[in-house]
Design a protein that fits this description.
This protein is globular. It has 20 helices and 24 strands. The chain folds into 3 domains: 245 residues, ANL, N-terminal domain (Rossmann fold); 79 residues, no CATH class; 117 residues, ANL, C-terminal domain (GMP Synthetase, Chain A, domain 3), CATH 3.30.300.30. By secondary structure, it is α/β, with parallel strands linked by helices.
């Protein structure tokens, strides 16, 4: 059975059991297996009446919701290729994706979103809004189309960190394989249990990892609760009370910072206990503990940490993190609180997953071993190469780029990494991000950026520059206060300390505080929080030039 057939079977067996929920205005609205199937049947009827056929593309441009899920399942059940578009992207970027995949129909949440489509493309588009789709009287309650493994079922657009987004075609075999892997890992995490898993989802379904969590949840005994307001995630988490949910590092960094600021604001014994407990835990992790550390650690673990853990989520078994490197310090921070952070590594082109941490045996800073059935190796320049059932068949309408990405029978990830004797992988950088100095030295910026950010936590972002220059320099984003919240002297002190232990070509010789925030809205971050390096360098070209005029190396 394909993943889609498994999902339909599970829903049919749970006609009166909640399988999906969304939070609206502080209240949870759920859908049973039977109710979800009824919505799917209604959407299938609409698609047939609209004349869509097997192989057509149908785009979804809407925030996460129960109806979004029903429409996604309906599209694939009809043999149509679902194209999930990012609801937070600007209309120009959405129009570019629409022009690329040429959908027979674009489904929008409401008329407001439909009106945002670029006029030149909207005129030629067939557009439908959810209220029309789910008010049709025509229904199709049939088993889903049976897909062969090679049949395409969805197109997912890459985040475009280094340029134009590309449409990644994923087939039924890709998704079925990966869901088998995720179910196996979740079985390890949750153990034997009769009650359903409680799962929370805030990332849009346009991301491959979010979609895999959706399909996995619908195929197992679980209830997936959808966030509908990213500004109220902390409140929604309390309502959902999940056992686990998928995160990006940016979110975990913000949660960590909020906790640290809250404890600091409280002051008194709580602040002292937190600081001492944290120091004791870190020394314990480094196997440098002593008797006094043991006392502080025990006290913090009894008095303070359980309350913090409960406030994040009383039922949490683990936080799952992917999409970008997570700092070891942040992973250890949550582990200190008693919440494991399990890392996953993968790309859209690998159906979101290549490696997954083993819940029972994982190493902080690593992203786990390759999942069974997937092979990974490194090339001469340390690029990670992947092959296996999770690797995509190609980019939509881009044969030359597909051939390049899959050269030699391996998918070339563009990431650099290494593997230890236990099979655990570590991601060390991204080839496209390498800074090539005019001396010929190549520098991966990510480890140095992480080191600075860990020592200047009040900074929003840190990005290294220096391509074709004589030395490295840093831009430190400190928005809102013209850089005053980040002290120049502190940053310089951090750099001086780091530089002592670095070879000359990795030393950071200058920096600039940047008052403008790096956001999705101003085009400096992708929608999942990754730096758009080329855009940042272009935006602050004059500031970068000034750094090298002031600080010749």
């Amino acid at each position: 059975m394909t993943f889609l057939e498994n999902i339909f079977t599970r829903l049919e067996r749970a006609p009166g059991t909640a399988v999906l929920a969304e939070i609206r205005d502080g209240k949870t609205v759920s859908a049973t297996g039977g109710e979800l199937l009824a919505l799917v049947a209604q959407a299938r009827g609409f698609l047939r009446a609209r004349g869509l056929k097997t192989g057509d593309r149908c785009a979804l441009w809407a925030p996460n919701s129960i109806r979004w899920v029903a429409l996604d399942l309906a599209i694939m059940a009809e043999g149509i290729i679902a194209v999930a578009l990012d609801p937070r992207q600007v209309p120009a970027e959405i129009s570019a994706a629409i022009s690329d995949c040429t959908p027979a129909l674009v489904c929008c949440a409401d008329s407001t979103m439909a009106a945002l489509l670029q006029p030149e493309s909207a005129a030629a588009l067939d557009v439908a809004i959810f209220n029309d789709i789910f008010s049709t009287d025509t229904t199709v309650a049939q088993p889903p189309t049976h897909h062969a493994d090679h049949d395409p079922v969805t197109i997912v657009y890459t985040s475009g960190t280094s340029g134009e987004s590309k449409g990644v075609v994923l087939n039924a075999g890709n998704i079925s394989f990966v869901i088998g892997c995720t179910n196996a890992r979740l079985d390890q995490l949750m153990g034997a249990r009769k009650e359903p898993d409680r799962v929370f989802q805030y990332a849009p379904f346009c991301f491959a990892a979010a979609r895999i969590l959706l399909f996995t949840s619908l195929s197992r005994n679980s209830v997936l609760t959808l966030s509908t307001d990213l500004t109220k995630i902390s409140e929604e988490l309390k309502l959902a009370a999940p056992n686990y949910f998928v995160n990006v590092p940016l979110f975990l960094e913000r949660v960590r910072r909020k906790i640290e600021e809250s404890i600091q604001d409280r002051g008194g014994f709580a602040a002292v206990l937190f600081k001492r407990g944290h120091q004791a835990y870190m020394r314990r992790y480094r196997k440098q503990t002593n008797f006094v550390d043991g006392l502080w650690w025990a006290a913090a673990n009894i008095i303070l940490f359980p309350a913090i853990r409960k406030n994040i989520g009383p039922n949490l078994k683990a936080l799952i993190c992917g999409s970008a490197p997570l700092s070891v310090e942040t992973q250890l921070f949550f582990m200190m609180l008693g919440i494991p952070v399990l890392q996953v590594y993968g790309l859209t082109e690998t159906t979101a997953i290549c490696t997954m941490d083993d819940p029972l045996h994982f190493e902080p800073g690593a992203v786990g071993p390759a999942v069974p059935g997937v092979k990974m190796t490194v090339s001469d320049n340390s690029e990670i190469l992947v092959r296996g059932p999770s690797v995509f068949p190609g980019y939509w309408q881009r044969p030359a780029e597909t051939a390049k990405a899959l050269a030699g029978g391996w998918f070339h990830t563009g990431d650099q990494g290494e593997v230890d004797a236990q099979g655990n992988w570590r991601i060390t950088g991204r080839l496209k991000n390498l800074i090539v100095l005019d001396s010929g030295h190549n520098v991966a910026p990510e480890p140095l950026e992480d080191a600075i950010a860990a020592r200047v936590p009040e900074a929003q972002h840190v990005i290294l520059v220096g391509n074709r220059r004589s030395s490295l320099a840093a831009l430190v984003a400190a928005p809102g206060t013209n850089g005053n919240s980040v002290k120049t002297e502190h940053v310089q002190s951090v750099l001086n300390t780091l530089n002592v232990n670095l070879p000359h070509y990795k030393q950071i010789r200058a920096f600039q505080l940047i008052a403008e925030p790096f956001t999705m809205e101003n085009g400096l971050l992708t929608t999942n929080g990754k730096l758009k390096r080329d855009a940042i360098v272009a935006r602050f070209a004059s500031e970068i030039d000034d750094l090298y005029r002031k600080k010749p190396a």
